[in-house]
Specification:
It is built from 9 helices and 8 strands. The chain is α+β, with helices and mostly antiparallel strands.
Length: 246
């Protein structure tokens, strides 16, 4: 099995993509919605591939806006998270299977310039607060930069992104005010909304992440190569604009 179009689902991160749909957007062919989880390795790889695709499309005069949407790979994860090695050995049947999956991910990430450090990743966190932070960033700052910072903290720095101090560090690195983020995370604002959005994605047919949508229409799931993403966005935008003009 190659690394194209791979997704993370509740049973692991080596599944094939599935089709899904979301409510249609009002704009025409410019809004990209990504359904993802902050601990989904293919989501980080997919982010890099998307960035490469968007750089290519920008040279053609095509512009898009990226929005990040929540999905919990482990919705039953305790608030404090779990020991990663023990949890993954249980989830995948053995420490050896977990290590083999990690190695595959490290190699795929390296191919897009991401130096994953699974040796530093000691906790599997609950990600609801990470999703709340991404929502907060969407309201008050740069959502994409904050998503990048959270991914980096977990996959490259091996930090526990279930901890508020770590999330505040991520936010500060992305240009958000640290204390405002800590104050936000100390409450429960957007908690119910993030859980509802997660459930809405499942009801729309999302079973694996990353899943990509253009104006609410499903494009594809998985960390596809940049050239495939660019082609899907070109075709998707053209089709939506044809429908609008009809």
């Amino acid at each position: 099995m190659d690394n194209d179009n791979m997704v993370c689902g509740p049973d692991g991160c080596d599944g094939e993509a599935t089709e899904a749909s979301l409510p249609r957007a009002a704009s025409v062919g410019t809004r990209i919605d990504i359904v993802s989880d902050a601990i989904c390795p293919w989501c980080y790889v997919g982010k890099r591939q998307l960035e490469r695709a968007l750089a290519t499309l920008a040279k053609e005069g095509l512009e898009f806006q990226v929005h990040w949407n929540p999905f919990q790979l482990n919705p039953d994860m305790p608030k404090e998270g779990r020991d990663r090695a023990a949890y993954r050995a249980w989830k995948f049947g053995s420490a050896e299977k977990s290590a083999a999956l990690d190695q595959r991910l490290v190699e795929a990430a390296a191919a897009v310039g991401l130096p994953f450090r699974v040796d530093l990743m000691t906790r599997t966190p609950n990600t609801i607060d990470a999703h709340r932070l991404i929502w907060f960033a969407g309201q008050h700052g740069d959502q994409d930069a904050t998503m990048e910072s959270v991914f980096k903290a977990y996959f490259i720095e091996g930090r526990d992104i279930g901890e508020h101090d770590v999330l505040a560090d991520c936010a500060e690195r992305a240009g958000l005010p640290r204390q405002a983020v800590l104050d936000f995370l100390a409450g429960d604002l957007a908690d119910a909304e993030m859980r509802a959005a997660d459930q809405a994605a499942r009801e729309a047919g999302v079973s694996g992440v990353p899943s990509f949508f253009l104006d609410g229409y499903s494009l594809f799931s998985g960390a596809m190569p940049a050239e495939h993403i660019a082609d899907a966005l070109r075709r998707g935008q053209a089709l939506l604009r044809e429908r609008k003009a009809a």
